[in-house]
Amino acid sequence: MLSRDYAVTIVDSVSDRLPECELLIALHARRSAPAIRAFRARQPRGGLLLALTGTDVYRDIHEDASAQASLELADRLVVLQPKALDELPPSVRARTSVIYQSSPTLVPGRRYASRFDIVQVGHLRAEKDPFTPITALRYLPPASRIRLTQIGGALDPDLRGLMDVMLREEPRLAWLGMLDHARTRQRLKRAHLMVLASRMEGGAHVIIEAVTSGVPVIASRVSGNIGMLGADYAGYFEFGDAKGCAQLMRRAETEPAFLARLMRQCDRRRRLFDPAREVRELRTVVARLIHQR
Predict the structure, then answer these.
(1) Beta strand spans in the chain (E)
(2) pLDDT of 198-256, one tens digit each?
(3) What are phi and psi of 245, to 5 degrees?
(4) Cβ(282)–Cβ(25) under 8 Å?
(5) Each residue of 148-172: b (16+ CB within 10 Å) or e?
(6) Spatial CA neighbour of 197 closest among 228, 221, 173, 169
(7) DSSP class per residue in 102-150
(8) Is the pTM of this model over 0.90?
(9) Which CATH superfamily is domain 116-272 in?
């Protein structure tokens, strides 16, 4: 996004020595804290942009001293959706920009006629709470045509074991494991619905990829998802509520008006996830920082 106008170098802040630079874009307040301190020691004022992740916003800045210090050292901050602003100390909100991430638009794929296809994307880990939608399958009536496909690897051996048990017990569930990004998007665009059950999200990119593929979403009612989909979105269930998740799955399957409502609401958000918009807003923030020096 920036290499057209600037000489950009990408480094790992943990293993690489920070090169000489006029401006640093640090990703993650806690993990990039060493690079932030090194840059600030070199350049006491100006040139430091910090982009905050979900674990920053909803965990680290509330309990980790190095993450908190990073907030104070940064000249500008970026968050990925507006609800994240509520989590920031009042002292830094005025120098924070909201920049939605983006994704190219895909034409929706040909959907299965014999089943109602729901996709869940994300590695098996606690923050994503993948087993709430999987458990929700148990609450569906026998007549339901819903099938849930899980895309993503098992980062936790215990969760792999639990997934193996669920696959044996639940015929409506399929697990594709890890797919590359292109194959994941191609599979997602054929779905009738995407489900995201996370405990914590900074601004889930998979929501963007569903919306820009014409696939409506049901999601846990957590701050990061509300920031992406809007406070009035009709497709929320409470975090960890498998019955509530099942009810929304079933409504989407059996009530065309409800599914159409979700699609309209998602379509209205699509303009926020336009790649040209993301590039323009990032370049504006960077140019502002450079001119402040």
Answers:
(1) 24-27, 48-51, 76-79, 96-98, 116-121, 146-151, 173-177, 193-196, 217-220, 236-237
(2) 998 989 999 999 999 999 999 999 999 999 999 999 999 999 999 999 999 999 999 99
(3) -65, -45
(4) no
(5) bbbbbebeeeebeebbeebeeeeeb
(6) 221
(7) --------PPPSSSEEEEEES-B-GGG-THHHHHHGGGS-TT--EEEEE
(8) yes
(9) Glycogen Phosphorylase B; (3.40.50.2000)
In sequence order, the β-bridge partners of residue 218 are 195
Largest CA distance in the chain: 66
- Strand order, beta sheet including 96-98: 24-27, 48-51, 76-79, 96-98
* Token pair recorded at residue 51: 């982009």
d(CA 156, CA 123): 9
- Minimal CA–CA distance to 77: which of 37, 114, 24? 24
> 191 near 111, Cβ under 8 Å?
yes
Bridge partners of 150, per DSSP, are 120, 175
Contact 2, 282 (CB under 8 A): yes
CA distance 173 to 152: 14
Please choose, from the candidates 149, 191, 188, 190, the residue with its C-alpha nearest in 3D space to the C-alpha of residue 205: 188
The amino acid at residue 160 is R
